[in-house]
Amino acid sequence: MEEGNLSLEELEKLKKIKTQVDNSFFKVTEGICPKCNEKMIKVIENDSLFDGALTFHIIKLRCNKCKKEYMDLEQAEKYDMFLALKKISEKKPIDFVSNNLFHKILVEAN
Ligand SMILES: [Zn+2]
């Protein structure tokens, strides 16, 4: 009977799927590395844009064992916004962006 072999194959398949799921699972609210189960250290990365007009503080968690860095959902969203603004700052000259920004603020204030 092939039944035994078949279930072993299925087991291997399931194991593979489970590993893939575990690897993409970024639940780091407890500050524990999902890979090594080690306590991670908090690292704050400061990034500024538009000549320092905008500063982002991204809180990351770093695992000392595997050197991987993680962010929680809130920080990841912040980082996405930072990257989007970074793209804008690279495409357009600083003066153009800030002039438009200040004009917008002036218009809204009146
Ligand atoms: Zn780790």
Please provide a written account of the structure.
Helices cover 51% and strands 18% of the residues. The protein is an alpha+beta fold. The chain has one domain (27-109): Ubiquitin-like (UB roll) (Roll), CATH 3.10.20. The chain has a 3-stranded antiparallel sheet with strand order 1-2-3. Strand 2 and strand 3 form a beta hairpin. It is elongated, with a radius of gyration of 23 Å. Residues 21-25 have low confidence and may be disordered. The structure holds zinc ion. Zinc ion is lined by residues 33, 35-36, 38, 63, 65-66, 68.
Task: Lay out the secondary structure.
Layout lengths: L2 H21 L17 E9 L4 E9 L6 E2 L2 H19 L2 H16 L1
Antiparallel strand pairs: 1-2, 2-3
How is the largest sheet built, in terms of strand order?
A: 1-2-3
CATH fold description: Ubiquitin-like (UB roll)
Stretches where pLDDT falls below 50 for ≥5 residues? Answer: 21-25
Known CATH architecture:
Roll
| Number of beta strands | 3
What's a quick, concise take on this entry?
The chain is of the alpha+beta class and 110 residues long.
List keywords for this structure.
110 residues, Ubiquitin-like (UB roll), binds zinc ion, three-stranded antiparallel sheet, alpha+beta
